[in-house]
Task: structure prediction
Amino acid sequence: MVSTEDFDLRQVAADRLLAAADSPERALAAVRSTFAGAEGVELQSIRRGVRPMPADGEPIVGPVAAVPGLYLAVMHSGVTLAAAVGRLAARELVDGAVEPALSGCRPERF
Result:
């Protein structure tokens, strides 16, 4: 996994990279200029999506009081926080625990 100001990149096969950036052109240019020997890298496909970005930039994790049974786990930094948030959310969902580490992430702050 490579994460820079210009793009996020990971290798998904011996001959394939998955990159995320503001635009396909920017991703391609950044990969080509960052890695030696990457001048010949070409785009195979493009997919556009919107990354979840909570209004305050912080994760939203926890039950939604207005919708019984709905539990949110939304964050921009999913790759880096997935393991910890998954473990904590599982404790809350399976064991009924209230995890103090998630107190600043609750949906009701909005």
Q: What stands out?
A: The chain has two helices and five strands. The first strand starts at residue 2 and ends at 3.
